Structure formats: structure tokens, C-alpha cells
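FORM 12-B: Structure-to-Sequence Request
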């Protein structure tokens, strides 16, 4: 593993990035069996693009195994009272360019929508019914690619279909997804 030194004042910690191990892809759009593999987000403003059949991990294509499921529940904070929907994404920990994801890096990235470097096992939106109420617990599930180190990202939005302002968000990392099984995930939305 090589270190990419981030030059900044204040002694920032270097960000570790594994070098790409393959040269067959630089995005999910370049993988797949002769058909479009990169599914652009059409309606959801705060969703990730997703692959149809294949992932691109550190320059190597691999078939997607979305047979796992993540089950999660969350409460919305007071700041998200009245929110109309949320977006959720199950992400693999390695992007096409070899960058290893953390919750902090994903939540700070403003360029995630339709970014073909992310490997989303799935990405979708759901309505909050009734609208965001801090006294309630909301439950949902999403399919996920099988493997270790997966992430779950949830963004609570002001409008329907994952649109509008992000009023609150949360992320869980280090999740192991097993084929044909559901994994319960604890996630806190702030």
C-alpha cells in the first residue's frame, strides 16, 4: 500500500490509497457484458449511480453479487422534522480508482451523484410516511453486494424522491454482507 501525502498545514494524516491492481477499467461504465453497466440516477437527487451487472474495483472488473440485504432502522433528528424522503446506498469499500472509502470521505464528497468510480451495490430512495417525525423509528432495507467492509449511506431529504436539501445524514462502515442473508445495521442519522 502506498501513501498519498496530503500537503496541508496542521499536520494532516496521510490518506492511504492502494495502487490500482488492474488496467481493464477506470469506471463501472467500462465493465459488463456488452451492454450499458452504469445506471445514471434519473429522479433521485441524492442517490449514487449503480452498476447493472459488474463493479470496477481498483482497475479490475468483477461481477456484482447483490444477493445480500442490509436491514436498518433510524430516527430523524429534530433538524429533519418534516423531511419527505431519504436516499440509501450500499457501497463497496474500494472505488474504481483504488481509493478506499470511509464514512467521512463519502459524506464529504459533493461529487458522488452519477460518479462511475463508486461501486454501489444498490442505491434508491423511499418516502418517509409520515414525514420526518423525531418520535418515530423508520425501517427499511436495501440489497447489497456480498463481501466485507461494505458501507451504508442514508441521506434524509426535504422533498420526495430523495430530492431537495439534505436535512440529515448517516453512514455505517465495516459491514459484512452474506449471500442470501439479511444483515442488521445500526446507523445514526445526524
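FORM 12-B RESPONSE
SEQUENCE OUT:
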Amino acid at each position: 500500500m502506498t501513501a498519498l501525502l496530503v500537503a496541508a498545514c496542521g499536520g494532516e494524516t496521510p490518506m492511504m490509497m492502494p495502487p490500482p491492481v488492474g488496467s481493464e477499467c477506470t469506471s463501472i461504465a467500462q465493465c459488463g457484458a456488452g451492454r450499458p453497466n452504469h445506471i445514471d440516477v434519473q429522479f433521485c437527487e441524492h442517490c449514487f449511480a449503480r452498476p447493472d451487472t459488474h463493479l470496477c474495483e481498483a482497475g479490475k472488473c468483477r461481477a456484482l453479487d447483490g444477493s445480500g440485504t442490509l436491514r436498518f432502522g433510524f430516527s430523524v433528528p429534530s433538524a429533519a422534522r418534516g423531511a419527505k424522503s431519504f436516499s440509501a446506498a450500499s457501497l463497496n469499500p474500494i472505488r474504481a480508482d483504488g481509493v478506499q472509502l470511509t464514512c467521512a470521505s463519502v459524506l464529504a464528497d459533493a461529487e458522488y451523484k452519477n460518479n462511475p468510480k463508486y461501486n454501489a451495490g444498490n442505491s434508491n430512495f423511499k418516502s418517509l410516511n409520515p414525514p420526518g417525525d423525531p418520535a418515530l423509528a423508520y425501517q427499511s432495507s436495501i440489497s447489497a453486494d456480498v463481501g466485507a467492509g461494505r458501507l451504508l449511506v442514508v441521506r434524509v431529504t426535504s422533498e420526495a424522491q430523495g430530492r431537495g436539501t439534505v436535512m440529515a445524514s448517516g453512514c455505517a462502515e465495516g459491514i459484512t454482507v452474506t449471500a442470501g442473508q439479511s444483515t442488521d445495521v445500526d446507523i445514526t442519522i445526524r
